[in-house]
Amino acid sequence: MSQSLPCLFVDLPLVRANAEAMVELCEASGIHPVGITKLACGSHEVAEAYLDGGIRTLGDSRIHNLEKLQDLPAQKLLLRIPAASDAMDVVRYADISLNSEEHTIRALSAAAVAQGRVHKIIVMHDLGDLREGCFNADDTVALAHLVSELPGLELEGLGTNLACYGGVEPSTENQQQLVDIAHRIEHELGVKLHVVSGASSAALPLLLRGGLPDGINQLRLGASLLMGIGLNDDPIPGTSQDTMRLGVEIIELKEKPSVPVNSTALDAFGNKPVFEDLGIRRRAICAIGKQDVNFDDLIPLDPALRIIGGSSDHLILDVTETAQPYQVGDTIYFALSYGGALQCMTSEYVRKEYLH
Ligand SMILES: *Cc1c(COP(=O)(O)O)cnc(C)c1O
């Protein structure tokens, strides 16, 4: 069983090297990167590779994932704004959380007092990407005031999120707006904020061209560390994109026509399939399906093979043109998009193997 396919292979030395490169890049500009593990479902191995690469704060969107990383010597940051009903666990397993709601902040304060702890809050401001955060600067400043007044809480800083929902690219202008609000909070409260958290891996192109304004001192990096990609999934110079690959096994290999015999019904997903007649083709069926991963997110490493479709548990490939004479039992490898990696990481049917 331990060698079974499908398997997602994760190259930890490459992940560590990506982390090292991004830590070096960020620290040269006075920025502390947070290593985000959510794509890897809070994998302990991935988190360790980040720490070996110089990361000092780990972040994840799910409190359950942070719970798994408690033994690691790093600060834990909860990325997704918490549910008030999770306040006790948030205070227990996260040192810092991103927040935008008074109701939840009050619940966190009560939970911190009950546990005799201090929980740190980064107040989120929405610069137009329209996911989390107060849209109005006055509301953001008011929340910062509230955090600084409530027992059990510490105002850690100000943050924003971009390029996640609305496709708003981190820019000198929007990052400067965040710095300006941070200055306003510092002025009104007479404090120095520890953190001004600009964006995700999507901000790395801006940093690389020297456009990130002074005052931004944190970036939250996931895709760049784990996959070497950032804004628009473009590769980040100095990182590797070969950190993960999916291996699947061929369970049938036969020559068949390319058009079904008397096709009149819908496929398993309720669609009317269309076929092009290419004559008799060599077709491989692999043991993975749409229950595991969306086929559009698979990138064959053998450029001569073509994904022609499949169903919940079967992936059908056309291997007629491949130089390699594939056989039943062979393994076929794919690179993955961010979405594909996320699905494979999450599927309990895909084994994970961490290469050291
Ligand atoms: C996922 C996430 C990140 C990391 O994004 P990457 O594109 O993987 O670098 C940063 N901040 C927040 C709030 C997130 O949800």
Automatic annotation (TrEMBL):
GO molecular function term, any single one: alanine racemase activity
CDD domains associated with the record: PLPDE_III_AR_like_1 (cd06815)
Organism the protein comes from: Craterilacuibacter sinensis
Keywords: Isomerase, Pyridoxal phosphate
Record's keyword annotation contains Oxidoreductase: no
Pfam family name, one: Ala_racemase_N
Name listed for the protein in its UniProt record: Alanine/ornithine racemase family PLP-dependent enzyme
GO CC list: cytosol
